[in-house]
Please model this.
Amino acid sequence: MEAKKNTISVLMLPWLAHGHINPYLELAKKLANRNFHIYICSTPVCLNSIKKRVTEEYSQSIDLVDFHLPSLPNLPPHYHTTNGLPPHLMTTLKNTFEMSTPNFSRILQTVHPDLVIYDFNLPWAADCATSVNIPAVQFLTFSAAVIALGIHMYDRQGEMFPFPELYLREQEILSLKNTVPGWKFPFDEGLRRSQDIVLMKTCRDFEGKYMDYLASLVSKKIVPVGTLVQEFTNKDDSEEIMQWLDKKHRGSTVFVSFGSEYFLSKEEIHEVAQGLELSKVNFVWVIRFPQGERINIRDPLPEGFLERVGERGIIIEGLAPQATILQHTSIGGFVSHCGWSSFMESMKCGVPIIAMPMQGDQPMNAKLVEYIGMGMEVVRDEKGKLQSEEIAKAIRKVVVEKGGEAMRKKAKELSEYMNAKGDEEIDGVVKELLALCNNK
Model:
């Protein structure tokens, strides 16, 4: 299991979520291309979601390492992931992962890596590594702005956050605090344990000032790794969707998805459906339900909705090849929850965002979408509820109307710039990691 000599071996431990293991895999590939040997350590159910993407090209440089959690009565192995996990079991999953620290110590002894890269709420992984003289570095898949706000709120209470363009309402701040039980601990402790640097899935071009402020708060160098958008999948995997999109005009269709962890309520599904119908814009809508819930897709939708929209829209239940869909020429907008990975994918593909943040860091990301000019947030009522008329209005403005031309242009410019830049951030990451390993 040990890596070949003369290469740096890295053991990665991401949080048990699609939005985390996917960017960890993309970072692994970038490093593998630069003579690193990578071990990605996660639960079997999480590793199964990425196995197909560790292609023959990486078979000698990326190994997947099973991390077994105790199988509790209310947390069987298929729940050892946040994907489809009933929300009330999230704390149980986090605690069970932490209880398995001895398993991680045994894996360290077997693999003997030169470096450990760990996720936002896993400071214990850094403790295990440093106890056997292995340097540990945190890799965060959130925006620098969000982490900076989180640390600021606790370390500089009473002081205004110095970036008014990202002002959050009280309800949105509560959502950020409630994302992870004991949320101050994982950010603060994980950052503090990271050796000298912190890796972040971001770019200095649009988050430079937030990175610098975060660096001043935590006294660590913030090293951006770039967008890390997953490579586009083989079209055979999504042939039916691609054929449907091929029939639509350029920029005429919105992709609608709220990520792998948020489940829309029946009321929210109803408002989104009516908004899509009112907009008269084509759509591909991904709807997900918690594992174990058997729901007929028609039940939460307005009566007759599917018949009325006809060939103008399709609904996919479960998961969809998001990056592949976003890069299709017919996609002119992304109705998104504004998870950070989705934000990055939209930017990379040049698709403007119709932001509908639901929880956690998403409201901050939505503010950033508006600030850099590549989309707009849907206006809610005074209670924070979605309204179909406002959804339709935002979709039409971003995708169809003249008033959205600047957003469409900005999204295209950002995409062209990001794609032209290539992997220049990764070269900086490699330099930092080599310095850490050579100074052990």
